[in-house]
From TrEMBL:
It comes from Parvibaculum sedimenti. Pfam families: DDE_Tnp_1 (PF01609). Belongs to the transposase 11 family. The keyword Transferase does not apply. This is IS4 family transposase.
C-alpha cells in the first residue's frame, strides 16, 4: 500500500468523483444516454451532501441540492422519475463498489495481547446484520419479522475489515431472510479472526473455519448444553468436578469469574473451546465459542478480543445517526436501495477523510467528530467539486479543517479504555501524546 500523502488522497477523491467515469457507469447501466438535465456526477454529489450533512433528509432535499450544485432547473417529478428507475439503484451500487476499490487504507495494526502473547492471525473481520423499517407499501418486497409493528423492513448484511475500517461485503435482503448464508465463507478466513454474534452460531462452521486455517470467536445461544470434557479457572487450574457434566450444571461463583471449557456435542467429534462469563448487558451467564488455542490465548484475552466486534455496531450507529440510513418515505424499492448504497458511500468517504487526515497530520482523529462536522468540511468539498475547482486545494482545505475540529479529546485515556486496549493501535506513531 502506498504511503498516504496529499497527492495520494487527491488521486483517490478524483478517481471516485471523475465526471467521465460516473457518466460511463450511468451509461453502462442505461440510466442516461446523454448528459442533459440529469447528470450522474451532480446526482452523486447531491446525494452524498444531503445524506451526510443534513438531519432527517428526504427526496425533496436531494432534489433541491441537485438543482443548487448543478444549476439545472429540473422539476421534482422528472427528477423523481429518474430516481425510481432500477438503473439508478444499479448506478449507486456500482459507485459503492468503486469506492471500495479506491479505499485501500490500512489504518490500524495488531500489536500484542494484554498478556503479551502475539496474535496468531494477521486480519480481523467483523460480520453482523442491521435492520430498519421501510414504508409499509414495501412489505411484499421486504417483509418484516415483526409484522404487526413493522410490516416492511430491510436487513443489511455487512462484513467489515477491522484494520482498514472498510466494508468487504454488503448485501440487502428482507428482514425475514436467514442471516447465516451471508457470513464470510470458511475458505476465505485463512490467517483471519472472524467475530460474530449469537445469530451466526454454527458448530459445523466453526469446525470448517478451523480446518481452513482460520479463527473465530462467536457468541453462543444461552440454551447450548454440551458435555464438559475439561474445565479451568481464570488461573489455569483444572476444575476436575466439572468433567463429564452438562454445561447447564456449571455455576459461576461471582460476576467476575471466567471459566475456560473444552466441550463436545453428541455425535460431533470436534472439541470446542467454550468461555463462560458474566454477560452484564443481559444479566446472565454468556458463552463464547472459539477455536483459538488455550496455550496461546488465555480466556480473559478471548473475552477482550470479542469486544472488538463493537466496532461494527459503531459503524451502524454512524450510518444511522450521521448518514441518514433510516426509514425512507418512499414505496419505490429502487430508491430505497439506491439511498442505502449512497449512505454507505457517504460513511466510507467520511472515514477515508478521517484516516487520511490522521496519517497526514500525525494526529489521532475521532471518526464520530468527522461525521458530525460534515456540514462544515463535506459541504465545502462538494461545493468545490461541483464548481470544478482544483481538487488538491479543496482536499487540503478539508484536511486542515478536520485536523482542527476532530482530534480525539483524550488520546491517553483511549490507550487504556478505548480500542487500543485490545492490542489494536493506530498506524500513526507520532500522535501528539505527551
Amino acid at each position: 500500500m502506498k504511503t498516504m500523502n496529499l497527492t495520494t488522497l487527491t488521486d483517490k477523491i478524483q478517481s471516485i468523483f471523475a465526471p467521465k467515469t460516473l457518466f460511463s457507469i450511468a451509461r453502462s447501466v442505461k440510466l442516461v444516454e446523454r448528459s442533459r438535465q440529469f447528470n450522474p456526477y451532480y446526482l452523486l454529489l447531491a446525494v452524498i451532501d444531503t445524506l451526510g450533512c443534513q438531519s432527517k433528509a428526504n427526496l425533496a432535499d436531494i432534489h433541491r441540492k441537485y438543482q443548487t450544485i448543478s444549476g439545472m432547473p429540473i422539476r421534482y417529478k422528472p427528477f423523481h422519475n429518474q430516481l425510481k428507475k432500477e438503473q439508478c439503484r444499479d448506478f449507486m451500487q456500482q459507485c459503492f463498489e468503486m469506492v471500495m476499490q479506491h479505499w485501500a487504507l490500512h489504518t490500524l495494526k495488531l500489536t500484542s495481547l494484554s498478556t503479551g502473547y502475539a496474535f496468531p492471525f494477521s486480519q480481523v473481520k467483523l460480520h453482523d446484520g442491521c435492520s430498519f423499517q421501510l414504508h409499509d407499501g414495501l412489505q411484499t418486497e421486504y417483509p418484516g419479522r415483526f409484522k404487526n409493528r413493522y410490516p416492511a423492513a430491510v436487513e443489511l448484511h455487512v462484513t467489515m475489515d477491522l484494520l482498514s475500517s472498510s466494508v468487504d461485503y454488503l448485501a440487502l435482503g428482507a428482514d425475514t431472510e436467514p442471516e447465516r448464508p451471508h457470513a464470510p465463507k470458511a475458505q476465505t478466513l485463512n490467517d483471519t479472526l472472524l467475530l460474530t454474534d449469537a445469530g451466526y452460531f454454527d458448530r459445523d462452521k466453526i469446525a470448517e473455519i478451523d480446518k481452513n486455517g482460520g479463527y473465530t470467536i462467536t457468541q453462543a445461544l444461552c440454551s447450548i448444553n454440551p458435555v464438559i470434557k475439561s474445565a479451568y479457572d481464570y488461573q489455569g487450574n483444572a476444575i476436575k468436578k466439572a468433567k463429564g457434566k452438562k454445561l447447564k450444571t456449571l455455576q459461576l461463583k461471582d460476576k467476575n469469574t471466567i471459566i475456560d471449557l473444552t466441550a463436545q456435542w453428541d455425535k460431533n467429534p470436534f472439541e470446542y473451546r467454550v468461555i463462560a462469563f458474566w454477560y452484564k448487558k443481559k444479566k446472565r451467564v454468556g458463552y463464547l465459542v472459539t477455536n483459538l488455542s488455550r496455550e496461546t490465548i488465555p480466556a480473559s484475552d478471548v473475552v477482550e478480543l470479542y469486544r472488538l466486534r463493537w466496532q461494527i455496531e459503531l459503524l451502524f450507529k454512524e450510518l444511522k445517526s450521521y448518514c441518514n440510513l433510516k426509514k425512507f418515505s418512499t414505496q419505490k424499492e429502487p430508491i430505497v436501495c439506491a439511498l442505502i448504497y449512497a449512505s454507505f458511500i457517504t460513511v466510507l468517504l467520511k472515514r477515508m477523510m478521517a484516516f487520511a487526515t490522521e496519517a497526514l497530520k500525525s494526529l489521532w482523529i475521532s471518526t464520530q467528530k468527522v461525521a458530525r462536522s460534515a456540514p462544515i468540511w463535506l459541504s465545502l468539498l462538494v461545493n468545490k467539486l461541483s464548481q470544478h475547482h482544483a481538487v488538491a486545494i479543496a482536499v487540503e482545505e478539508c484536511v486542515e479543517l478536520i485536523s482542527k475540529l476532530c482530534p480525539r479529546a483524550h488520546p491517553k485515556r483511549d490507550l487504556k479504555d478505548g480500542l487500543y486496549q485490545f492490542g489494536v493501535t493506530s498506524l500513526v506513531e507520532n500522535n501528539g501524546i505527551d
